[in-house]
Amino acid sequence: xxxxxxxxxxxxxxxxxxxxxxxxxxxxxxxxxxxxxxxxxxxxxxxxxxxxxxxxxxxxxxxxxxxxxxxxxxxxxxxxxxxxxxxxxxxxxxxxxxxxxxxxxxxxxx
Length: 110
What we know:
Blueprint: H1 7-45, H2 51-60, H3 62-107
């Protein structure tokens, strides 16, 4: 079983995808923060009299809804990448455990 896990492939995967994950995560943070800007801008544009009506206008506006859709996509991408990176880290941990077990067996400690 030890032969099927390559810590080097897992490390390569982490290295090769670190930048893409950071970009995906930055998109989530940006879109989350930008959502507030869109809401404020739309509330200012609204002709409604009450704050509640202005807020309703902003939340229902196409620009706000489009931002939410983009945020959803960004979160999906970020989370997919995060879990793949966690899986790669887990492979390394499994490999370490198997290697430790193998060393213990060779020494006759197990």
